[in-house]
Write a structure and sequence with these properties.
Blueprint (H helix, E strand, L loop, with lengths): L2 H15 L11 H9 L1 H13 L16 H24 L3 H19 L12 H13 L5 H18 L3 H4 L2 H21 L1 E2 L2 E2 L2 H19 L2 H7 L1 H15 L15 H13 L2
Antiparallel strand pairs: 1-2
Helix pairs in contact: 1-4, 1-5, 1-9, 2-3, 2-13, 4-5, 4-7, 4-9, 4-10, 5-6, 6-7, 9-10, 9-13, 11-12, 12-13
Amino acid sequence: MSTRIKTIELFLAFGLATTVGTQTLSTNAHEADEMVDNPTADYLLIAQGAEGGEGGEGGEGGTSASNPDVDYMTTLGLMKGHLIAAQELIELKNYEQAEPHIGHPVEELYSGIEPVLPQKGVQDFKPTLNQLHDLAVSAPDSPQMQTLFDESLASIDQAIAAIPESQRNSPEFTMDVIVEMLKTAATEYEAAIANNQFVEVVEYQDSRGFVLYADELYQTIAEQKSQTDPEGHQTITDSMAELKTAWPSIEPPPAPVKDPSEVYGLVSQIELSK
């Protein structure tokens, strides 16, 4: 994983541990138009803020995320995204490429949620993640691999379940998490590309996992959203479907299906409809 992207994920973790909110884009009409016109510039500003290692205040006219559970859930969502990518590669018996995706949750993300787990009554599951990673390195084709993989996913789900049900079922809360995950996915997608080809395969695969889990999350609130905001729901559904075409498979295509600016634009549309 590139230093820039690693910094962004670590920033999310740092933001949770210090209860500093992550940045969101302004949603007033004038700024919304500017963001759609030049989404790449807006998201690069977000990335630069993350690299600074400080929780930024919301843009002019915008708001700052103030709910630490959004950061907590985003971190857990990124963990699941990594494992989704790893699972696809394991099914292809591509153990070498699967290994870093198994390592990232414990190496780069776990420290962000570790301090709050006792407060939420969640048992430390770092040993399970470490065991899975150790096995991915030493014997990835072992029969124990799937067992530990399932246990790791179950541990993450248990940590997610510690968030109050009212929040987990809230479209507003879930959309905040989805948008943060998609922002990270868009940034990683861009980082994977050079000279119109994918040169950082891990970043491409990470971003695919994040988008797939973000879409999975949206399905949990899609019915509510469709009833309360039919137009927004349709925009999100259409944009998500179009967004996923940028990742036709876990193995990157010879050339990008979508330019990073198109990916940023689709994420912007989802955010503006949240």
